[in-house]
Every structure is written in structure tokens, then in C-alpha cells.
Amino acid sequence: MGAKGTLLGPLGAISDASWPRLRDQAPMAGEVAAGGRRPPRVSMQEHMAIDVSPGPIRPIRLISDYFPHFYPFAEHAPNLRTPVALATRSAPLPQPDPEPEGDSDNSTALGTLEFTLLFDVDNSALHCTAHRAKGLKPPASGSVDTYVKANLLPGASKASQLRTRTVRGTRGPVWEETLTYHGFTPQDAARKTLRLCVCEDPRLRRRRRAPPLGELRVPLRKLVPNRARSFDICLEKRRLTKRPKSLDTARGMSLYEEEVEAAGEERGRILLSLCYSSQRGGLLVGVLRCAHLAPMDANGYSDPFVRLFLHPNVGKKSKYKTSVRKKTLNPEFNEEFFYAGPREELAQKTLLVSVWDYDLGTANDFIGGVQLGSRASGERLRHWRECLGHSDCRLELWHPLDGKPLQLSD
Description:
The chain is elongated. The strands form 6 sheets. Strands 7-4-3-10 form a 4-stranded antiparallel sheet, with no helix packed on it. A 4-stranded antiparallel sheet has the order 6-5-8-9. The chain has helices at residues 19-25, 44-48, 83-90, 186-191, 343-346, 379-389, and strands at 7-9, 12-14, 112-120, 125-134, 146-153, 162-163, 174-182, 193-200, 214-219, 229-234, 240-242, 256-258, 269-277, 282-291, 304-311, 319-321, 332-340, 350-357, 365-373, 395-400. It is mainly beta.
């Protein structure tokens, strides 16, 4: 083969115009450089790295753009050095955005929750209807078993905790379930916030309780009484706060805990009905229900019952007690008691109502109490006076419980 011949190979023919360029890059075997010394050999790795452009590695859309196939017929060989191929080598390839299953925006990374709130002023109730969740992102891939947990803040979170049923095996659960807070007043709406958490049910998966998949908070002062309002809000990560150093003495205790709102002196509330019966000649006191009681037992609940005492005691029966409701913070009693006496005499008395947690074998725990009568003030005094001022008229009213024990004599 001569110096100006044609070099044939499996990749095709190299023209005579390209031959001097190849010859200039590396001397042929047998040639001696000027000075009589043989030039050092160039390895194949060094030779292949001569024309490599520096820079970051670009993604390859088609491998054939860089390593063309051998085409036995030249007329069918594609033109690899097209403007598109040149632009592909010189400019980075655009990366297509992956299409996630749910929302890809950072603000909706945990999914969204659809729900409706209604403040029923006439019945002193707050209704929260959980409709559905979309685009939930569980810690592990696959389907999840979820429920919605609600809390009223500030206050004891366990006392105001309500939850829906668990929907299994989906990242877009539909509940369509209403959670009702009884004893919700306009004063509560002005200062309380509703926290909703989408949680994974650990009982069905036989594992430890996992943190919520996401939560959100709605200030209830935005609600218009007796008008339903629908929401579709993005879930956020739960808020953590660092534990006080005094609580870090226990070995293995986490340095962070879920944010706890200040509970203050809230112990719960009770719904009482008062009616002066002209036919029976006395006062009918109805203990209807309690709501958001403070938990007194280790399991996070209480076994509540209610005591009634009409003071001063003049020898007639003045003490009553309801039945015990097991393991609940929102008990329903619907029990009524009668105190005989003329209206003028009852106007000078005081009705002491107290809520207790029943403990077998030990002393009962005081949860809270309320005092009605001439010595009371505010709504408690108004409730007492209106009852004695109108015969045969049943008046129902919610009263918040005081945390200080009442002076009840045996």
C-alpha cells in the first residue's frame, strides 16, 4: 500500500484528503523523527482521547448518533452529520419533565385534602365533613390505609380529638364522613383553630405508629355562622418543636416532639338543662352530655360521671349522681333529676355540678365543675334566673368547666 493509496476498512474508505491529517498526527512505523531518535509510542487510549471535547457528560438520546452502524451499501447509509446531530453534540439535550402520579409542585408534594366546615350556632356545634384526599405521598411506595384526625387548638389535643374511619389501599381515599364538635360557641370560633391530619393506620399494617402524612390548620374565625364553606388545601409537614432539656433525661427519648398548643385551664364543658315545673313544684335538672373532657387515665381517656349538689342542704335529698360512661371524653348521659321546693326558696340556693373520673379501688379524679345560682355570674347567673323566671320552659346551655375543685360536703 502506497503513501497516497486508499485505506480500506470495515468502516468505509478514507479519502486522500484526510490522509495527510492522519499522517501528521502520528508518524508511521519505520519513520524516524528529526535528530535520529524514534518518537515514543502513542497508546490507543491516548490516541482516542485527542479529539475529545472537555466538559460535563451529556445524556445520550440515541446511541446510534455517536456509534453509527455499518451499512454495506453506501446509498442507504444515513447522513450522520446533519445539523440536528451537530446541534445535539454542541448543546445539552433538554430533559423531559417526569410525569408524576400526583401533583409535582413543591407546594402540593404531600397532597391535598377536601373538606367542608359548618358552624351551627343554633345547636352550638361545629361540623367538619372530610370528603377526599388527592396525591398522597406515603413514606413507602404503594397503597396506604389512611384516616383523618381532627383537633381543636388551643386545648388538650386528646380531649378534642375526633377521627374518621380508615379507607384501605388507595392514595386517593374518599371518606365522606362528618365529625361534629358539640358545645362549640362563638367565643370558640373567635379564638380556636382546627387542625386536620391525614394519618396512616398502623394497626392494619402491623407496624409502629407513623407520623402523619400531612396536616393543615384552619382559623375558625373565618367561618360565617350557619353557612357551609368548602376547602381544598395542600397538606404540610407536621410541626416539631425541641423538647425542654428537663425532659431529655430519659434514655432513648426523641429530642423533638410534635408541637403542643397551650391547653390553658380548659377542662371541658357540660350541657345542662334547667326547668321549673309548676305541676311538680320543683326544679328539673338535666345532665345531657359533656364534651372535650380532660383525659385522666393512662390510656388517654376518662371514665366520667357527674355529681349534683344543691346547697344549702335543708334535710331534703340534694345529692345525685349519674351513671359512669367508660373510656370516653365526650360522654352522653341524658339523665334528669328533680329538686322539690318553691321558686322563691330555690332562688336563694346554689347548684354545684362536678364531673369526675371513676377509678376502681382508688379515689376518683376531679375533672371540672360549674356553679349555678345567685352567687354565679355571666351566663351561669342568666341561665339560673331565666329558668326560675319562666315556668315549664326547658332551657339548655353549654357551660365551660372550672379546673378548681368545688367545695362539696359529704
